[in-house]
């Protein structure tokens, strides 16, 4: 069975948690596409070469989850040749046998516009910054400023900007528990699976 669930949205909206839960529940493979851009940003040197030569070891680095790695990822993700180098891998993953969940920014719009289910998971910048702050600590106002700066860069780049696909189902997690958000997402998948 070929079945793709595209989960897009801004940083710290809950995409990763929802995607992992969907993959577990339905037995699908999961790809966190942000990790690809984080690995490219962390590798240093020429980002296009880094994207073209990305290895499994690059994706296994222990320092990819930091705010700094997210910031570096957002910068290299604006380079069209970096995005182009990562397309085939993501498309092959999306259409692998057995079903796949991919989370990112452009899965439903660019990588897999034919995805069977498209979700756009979002939350207010304040709520997302608060979640990030609970994880990383530090100055709350600065975390909010960084979340806003990353939104701005991801939404306003020329190539594959963050935006909901016209047929995406919106899930706003600002006032939802994790369980409620997962159930809302799972209901969409179950509905499409029949
Ligand atoms: O989801 P994340 O925070 O790990 O993503 C890090 C950055 O990578 C994000 O700010 C923008 C970029 N990204 C992207 O441009 N396209 C994707 N499909 C996933 C991430």
How many β strands by DSSP?
5
CATH topology: Rossmann fold
Q: What are the distinct ligands in this entry?
A: 2'-deoxycytidine-5'-monophosphate
- Examine the secondary-structure arrangement and name the CATH architecture: 3-Layer(aba) Sandwich
The amount of beta strand, in percent, is 5-15%
Q: From the helix content, strand content and strand pairing, which structural class follows?
A: alpha/beta
How many helices? 10
Strand order of the largest sheet: 2-3-1-4-5
Q: In which range does the helix fraction lie?
A: 55-70%
The level-1 CATH class? Alpha Beta
- Uncertain runs: none
Sheet of most strands: 5 strands, parallel
Q: Going by CATH, what is the homologous superfamily?
A: P-loop containing nucleotide triphosphate hydrolases
- Average pLDDT, rounded to a whole number, is 97
